[in-house]
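Provenance and format

Records in this collection were gathered into a single text stream. Each protein contributes a sequence line and a token line. The two records reproduced below are adjacent in the stream.
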Amino acid sequence: MLPFIARRLALAVATVLAVVTIAFALGRATGEPGALLLPDNATQAEVDALNTALGFDRPLIVQYLDTLAGLVTGDFGSSYRLHESALGLVLERVPATLELAFWAFVIGLVLALAAALAIQLTGSRTLRAVVGWAGAVRQSVPDFFFALLLVLVFSVLLGALPSLGRNSYASLVLPVLTLATGQFVMYLRLLDSSLSEQAGQDYVRTAIAQGQRRSTVLFTRMLPNAALPVLGMAGLNLGGLLGGTVVVEVVFAWPGLGQLLTTAVSHRDFPIVQAGLVFVALAFVIVNTAVDVLVRRIDTRTAAA
């Protein structure tokens, strides 16, 4: 287990380094931020002076090394626009994004589990077809468009739910529903496929032949074995959700990390962009490492690998 964890830590360092390098390269390729930070009537001399004050007159290699030093020390500098600690601004927005990602993850997984178990318990091909069709339709609709449809129905026409901000638990419903229904499809397909594969195994046929109820076999034997591949996918998905709520946060004006990064990118506020991307990369690696360790502890077939 220790060699495995050491390999994953090395991979985590390489991943974060790659994210920082790509973010630095793409950020500098878009140009200097002086013109965006000053009023439209600012002279070129004023723009050049601000870019110099921000350090953009230095060689790129020096700027890159300063970025790496900030990564090591946790000091990403101050926001060009807000003049506050970039890392502090990111950490202020993290709870809102975590809340949204957590509930979307849990509800999407629970809905998929309930649907997959219902299909297996009833053995209904009609139910599988209906649920699969509904899932395919949802997956074909982009999140931003589905979010707008929810706003139109539940906020504009019915007036039942708020469409903007993070003011109450009711504010969670529409953004969580947007994300959870998209996750539901992926989990359902994986769970249904894995449970169907387990249903054809000898141990299931033997247990049923011995008189055990199918529901008992499903919950006590088939589901634990079928859950292993789902755990791995869930880890990837949860890590991805932490950085993948951008569109939904923008549509619903959710004050999370995605909205902060979107604004920072449009203003070339590089300290915030770099701090935010490093946080997302670290969260993704940590969550996936934890899930991989859990799967290896549960699945004895991979323990020796």
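Adjacent record:
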Amino acid sequence: MSSPTIVRTVAEMREHVRAWKAAGQRVALVPTMGALHEGHLSLIKIAQQSADRVVATIFVNPKQFAPHEDFDAYPRGEAIDVEKLASVGCDLLFAPNGAEMYAPGFATAISVSGVSEPLEGAARPQFFGGVATVVAKLFIQSQADVAVFGEKDYQQLQVVKRMARDLDIPIEIIGAPTARAEDGLALSSRNAYLSAEERAAAVALPAALKAAVAEVAAGGRIDEAEQTATAALKAAGFGQVDYVEVREASDLSRLGPGPIEGAEGRILVAAWLGKTRLIDNMAVA
């Protein structure tokens, strides 16, 4: 397949989108930070099922990283990313620089309260403000009809949905199932940080979640399932466990400590394996 057209400015992207829409075509957006893997490509494929044209974006957003986090070390490789986008027939790549996204004097931030506050919001207080701001810009810049986000970043998906709903941004948001390796580990750009030994140990993360889901689904107490999962991660070699919690699926309010009692739940985890922080989640019926 041919390589996607690469544009660096909002004006160039809008020119392409306007032409497509004038021809009656539906446009989908897949925002990424690059270092693309099969999980990202699965989002492109889902977007193609919902639209005639697909725009992928690559921008490592400085506003969602704290000073001590891995912004400078975050994996980058546009040439390889372009090859991967070409392999699935992505139409357009928007790859702006920092000045294009945040012009000198940029002074606006979007804060989504409620759903952004627990879990990742507590562990990384700056994170969702940066995500909401850049995603709102991408929605407005692209004028896309639909956007696709992976459920692997489940809380992020709920924050983006709330933000778009509250700001009346006319875009359909699709949550795509988490792409996983054969052993169950959720695909992530940060998996590249893992040593061979750590990668082998990482399979304990989805295994612990799966066991907790089964325990809760069978009528077990939520607090006991969370404690068992945390202990399993520690036993497998994980260090700090930021959270293992069962939350209500849409607003991420706390469930438990007893049985789930018919609620639609989601168990979410963030834990450190060496210097790498891994996150994952699974549905709880």
